[in-house]
Amino acid sequence: MWITIDDREIEVHEGRMLLQALDDAGLLGNDVDIPHFCWHPKLAIDGSCRLCQVEVEGESKLQIACDTKVVDGMVVRTDTDRVRNARAGVMELLLVNHPLDCPICDQAGECKLQDFAFDHGSPVSRSREPRRALAKNVAIGPEVVFDQERCILCRRCVRFCDEVTGTSELGIFGRGDASVVDTFPGRPLDNAYSMNVADLCPVGALTTRDFRFKLRVWDLDDVDGICTGCARGCNLHLGVAKGAVQRAVPRRNDAVNDTWICDEGRLSYHAIGAPDRLKEPQLRGTDGRLAPTDLATAVEVAAARIRRLVDAKGAGVFAGIASAHATNEDLFTFWKFLDALGAETRGVPVIRGQADGILIEAEKAANASGARELGFDVTGAIADRVRSGGVDAAIVFGHDILDAQFLGGTDALATLDTLIVLDLHQSELHHVADVVIPTLHAAEKDGTLTNSAGRVQRVRRAHEPAWPAWSEGSVISLLGAALGLAGFDGSWDVAAVSAELARSQPRFAGIDLASVGRGGRNIANAEDVTAPVDGEA
Amino acid sequence: MRNAPFVTNYLSEHLADDAYAKLAGYQRAGGYAAARRAVCELSPDEVIEQIEGSGLKGRGGAGFSAGRKWAFMPRDESPALLVCNADESEPGSFKDRLLLERAPHMILEGILIAAWATRAQKTFVYVRGEYATAAVAVERAVAEASKDGLLGDDIMGSGFHHEVVVVRGAGAYICGEETGLLESLEGKKGQPRKKPPYPSEYGAFGLPTTVNNVETFAHVPHIIANGVPWFRSFGTEDSPGTTLFGVSGQVLRPGLFELPLGTRLDEIVFEYAGGVPDGRKVKGVIPGGVSMPILPAGQLDVRMADEFLRERHTRLGTGGVIVMDDTTCMVRVASVISYFFRDESCGQCTQCREGTGWINKLVDRIERGAGEERDLEILLDIAGKLEGQTICAFSDAAAWPIQGLMRHFRSDFEAHLGAEKCPFPASFEL
Fold first, then answer.
1. Could you give the 3-state DSSP secondary structure of residue B197?
2. For B262-303, how does the pLDDT look when each residue is reduced to its tens digit (9 = 90+)?
3. What is the separation, in whole angstroms, between the first and last Cα of chain A?
4. How far is CA A247 from CA A189, A203, A222, A271, in A?
5. A222 phi and psi, to 5 degrees?
6. Does the distance separating the beta carbons of B353 and A176 come in below 8 Å?
7. Helix, strand, coil shares, percent, chain B, to 5
8. Which of A3, A132, A284, B255 has a CA between 20 and 30 Å from the CA of residue B91?
9. For residue B360, what is the nearest residue in chain A, using CA coordinates?
10. How far does A2 lie from chain B, in Å, by closest CA?
11. Which chain A positions have a beta carbon within 8 Å of B390's beta carbon?
């Protein structure tokens, strides 16, 4: 079915509303400009802001694009004087009671009211009447702060809590121009997704405690990220400034997280600069204490200890305990390393928690599926192997192995002859490690992660690490070279590794760093690249 | 009650009789014969045909053909509902209240016939919260009718089943808008729904629903009993039948007058309502409740039916005639009306929520003498922006009276500009 919008013919699906159809086609906000507040692609149609009015041939009144069904041959105009006047009228009315405090508002720079006022409104206000004086700085929940005066009553936040989380903490109280969004007595906005209302809020009425007054948004560089909190792999916009991630907000990916992210995932970027971050390689000295060293020495010592042990007892005593937080490329390199070394004992501990049926999944790591696809055992059997003895040396990525679901502590590792730890943060592992090498956070490196649905998604280096740190793959590569293992020369180029992975693993065929795209590609169906990404949200 | 002495006042002739509110009294006057004829002798489609043929227009204000509305309903046995809109809240209107209190069985009989025609299993009578007496009267009538086999199972031996439930609103004007009513009926905040879908497709609790005004139901038994030509002998070609004009304001004999549609407004004001007190002159008359634009004294020679009122840029509305004499400050009138609409706007749509507030603040400022010339243009401009751009017709109802007052009494507004205070000292207090 075809419609014509501003002389441009586009193909649409039957039964869709005009805005939906334009969103389906990826045109909304890009090629076709229909301003709107209350409509959101992932929420029920509200039809109340009245900004998206367009002219439909054959209709005497202007129609709201959010609630007008497409009809074959429909002719729509978004650029006539009538439409412009109607938009200007709505903008003027919305600004009658708005405080216009943009200079001190966090939303400035990414505010729809501000943008639309510039694009569709009048530069001058005709109102001389007093504005509504309402509550400011209301703590409506543990993570969200509310400014009632800035609110334009689009009801997106209310609908989110009704339709997505089903928690219905928010409502519209009062009538007419006395209407306000508020919570019910004794029931704060406190759910696992509460901060999404700040993203949904087109103005600066709902802001997160996390980012409030932190920085102006135009000072942020936008880098695509992936949340590593669970196997969902929610897509993120990382806001980067001053060499650090300053905030994370959801990036639309209809095949993964729609336009949402859980609060825990949103705040997980704080792990990047956490005080317990490992800041340098360390070696256990003859005095039994860990002392700082450089990477070359750490690798050299680690290689020497592994070589001595393997030469004496064979590779059977060596265990490779990888992490489901590492990238496909890191894991692929490690797998090759273990093969070259001849070490059969390998596995990836994946911590399991509760799934919530919305986004949060039971597997608490972003690349559990990648580890599984590459052949690692992810059942936790590796912990039993270590506990049952016969392992004298191990390389461990991260410290998930210490979780109560696996070793429950360091006892089983304390008896090892050699323990080499590659990790982001300090943990009890350091009490028993011989060599410690700091690794990179997913926001500090390039690579791919495979989510629970088999979608391979790209992570990018958003900024340089604040301290010396290396990807697991590059450290293993150095180690392989130091051990003289076949296929390891000490260099590690993630793009080349990714390409090799795609060539050698049939499931990853055609999916590498270069081809994965912004929306990711599914290993079950590499052609599945159609999900709208980063469009209207 | 002051009935017009010389017309056939079929709606109101027994309203003064206390017994008429009771089943026995109503039946003594011939009540329920029409319902019996409908459910026992006529098919639903035949009833719809008669009502459509009668030209009966909805009496709630919009004036849509009742028969056509019924014809929108699905013609199968699927569950369907009927709603009697008794949320009479338009300032200046009090006709439904009298009918509910004094002739509840006439409403029930109309409901029964409409239910048969629209194949509805259940009717909700949604009564304005403030109408406590009316709600009790209808509840009593429902109990009486149910006991007597006029409601419930196998009505009058026809096999038709119908029940009526009385629901009381909580006093919001917007719950008189049919989809706002449906939301409220479902226990939600009274906010009109976007249309489509219309109630005949997706009404109360998601079921096909017909919503009619109290007075609309009241006409139905008379049409079925006396026939289409009889009904069309009253009123005009386009607006047949009588209606209950409620006259209020500065007249000597305020009250309810049942007159044929098309009766001249000056006749209603001067002959039936007795005109204004001696020494005063009529300044303006609102013909159909406050949401309809006012007419100045010089334009009262208009026949009270939409086809004529439209030519004067106003409408019949609910037939609530409000008369104002020459002491009246029309800015003060605008203030009162705009305050009402500001207070009653549900607040969903931007234009209505923000526009009604802005208009009210602006009018009040003019009334205080703090207005400027440009404010008058702004006022008209905002009113224009409220028209026809929102989910329901409330914002039109908020805009029209302001446009009417500015059209005919701009000089009153201008007299306030730069004035120290309102130049109409004898006008009513705000």
1. coil
2. 999 999 999 999 999 999 999 999 999 999 999 999 999 999
3. 25
4. 20, 18, 10, 12
5. -100, 120
6. yes
7. 45, 15, 40
8. A132
9. A129
10. 22
11. 50
